[in-house]
Design a protein that fits this description.
The protein is mainly beta and about 375 residues long. It is about 5% helix and about 60% strand. It has a single domain, classed as Outer membrane protein transport protein (OMPP1/FadL/TodX) (Porin), CATH 2.40.160.60. It has 1 helix and 23 strands. The strands form 3 sheets. Strands 1-4-5-7-8-9-10-13-14-17-18-19-20-23 form a 14-stranded antiparallel beta barrel. Strands 3-2-22-21 form a 4-stranded antiparallel beta sheet, with no helix packed on it. A two-stranded antiparallel sheet has the order 15-16. The N terminus is likely disordered.
């Protein structure tokens, strides 16, 4: 029955939270720890957003289009899992949990040259212990590396960037803990996982004004809870889904010298949902369809993140190549929620994103 999930897994594990709230990208999934036997997987995702709005022109004498402010980006991930014995197993999971990319590249728009980028990578060392055939516990440590840069054009000061800073990669550690209930005869599994917050201290260099190294910027990446479930509902058919809560209100960025701190903050936590059905068509081929949802908050958003919630539809397929090897992939279309920015007062509407994902996995 687990094969039914494979068609959606490549997409869900690499691009599931494209354009989600905060800086969320990977969803911090730990599904590899539940794979049978010794297992390895490599995944790749690519997201092409289209995020455009209407706001002031540089002279504030009328309105202008922003152009697409959300560049395409890619995601990678891998995991290796091994069984020590019938009860104990370990996994190492790499993903890119947090990220952002915005670029106001249209010279006819007031925020021309405003841009920001956040990149991250995390490694999670996870162990799982089966208490019996139904219940298990899992936990481990997570190391996160994160960095980025920002350039802000305040159009009231005339053209050109007024503030720019580089945030060198910084590392922080946290922990993961959870439990699961399984009933293999009906392919039932419910897993609850808590991920702790992680504090980082980002070495900061001001390039505009050109002050060079300045005091580091402190930041907290939020705690989160993932609830993942699957169950057989008919012969060769599986229902699966997830709920993810992220405590984004703890994340705030107050870099040295920025005149309007906080540079980044969130008024609301986010909850994202997904629900899908998988179907096996033959011994080699299975497919799936799933929907995703994140509620639109409705509050003004920052110009560095001009989106608010989404509704998505995705399809996936998996093919068994034999000898324990499987290739899977999926395509996801996201309808991004409308948003109004608090800075320029721009309206962003009718936006979307397309995400593709591919995963190669093997059991040995």
């Amino acid at each position: 029955m687990n094969k039914f999930l494979a068609g959606s897994a490549a997409l869900l594990m690499t691009t599931t939270l494209a354009q989600a709230g905060g800086l969320d990208r990977s969803g911090q999934g730990i599904g590899a720890i539940f794979e049978d036997g010794n297992h390895a997987e490599l995944s790749f995702g690519y997201v092409t957003p289209s995020v455009t709005g209407v706001g002031p022109n540089p002279s504030f004498t009328g309105l202008a289009g922003s152009g697409n402010v959300a560049p395409a980006y890619s995601q990678i991930g891998f995991a290796v899992k091994t069984d020590v014995n019938d009860a104990l197993s370990f996994a190492l999971i790499m993903d890119q949990p947090f990220g952002a990319s915005v670029d106001y590249a249209d010279p006819g728009y007031a925020l021309y040259e405003t841009a920001a980028e956040v990149t991250s990578m995390s490694f999670t060392a996870l162990g799982r212990y089966k208490l019996n055939n139904a219940f298990s516990v899992h936990g481990g440590l997570r190391m996160l590396s994160i960095g980025g840069n920002v350039a802000v054009n305040d159009p009231t000061n005339g053209p050109g960037v007024d503030y720019a800073a580089d945030f060198s990669n910084a590392t922080g550690t946290g922990y993961v803990i959870g439990g699961a209930y399984e009933k293999p005869e009906i392919a039932l599994r419910v897993a609850l996982t808590y991920s702790s917050a992680i504090d980082v201290s980002l070495p900061t260099t001001l390039t505009t004004p050109a002050l060079g190294p300045v005091p580091s910027t402190e930041a907290t990446l939020p705690q989160s809870v993932n609830l993942d479930f699957q169950t057989g509902i008919a012969a060769n058919t599986l229902l699966f889904g997830s709920i993810r809560w992220v405590d984004w209100t703890v994340t705030e960025l107050n870099p040295f010298g920025y005149p309007a701190n906080p540079l980044l903050s969130y008024d609301q936590d986010t909850i994202t949902y997904s629900l899908g059905v998988g179907r096996r068509f033959s011994d080699q081929l299975s497919g799936s369809v799933a929907i995703g949802y994140e509620k639109t908050v409705g509050d003004p958003v920052t110009d560095l993140s001009p989106t608010d919630g989404y509704l998505s539809l995705q399809i996936g397929a998996a093919y068994d190549l034999g000898n324990g090897t499987e290739i899977s992939g999926g395509v996801r279309y996201l309808m991004i929620g409308d948003a109004t920015t608090s800075g320029a007062g721009a309206d962003f509407s009718d936006n979307s994103a397309i995400a593709i994902g591919v995963k190669l996995s093997t059991t040995f």
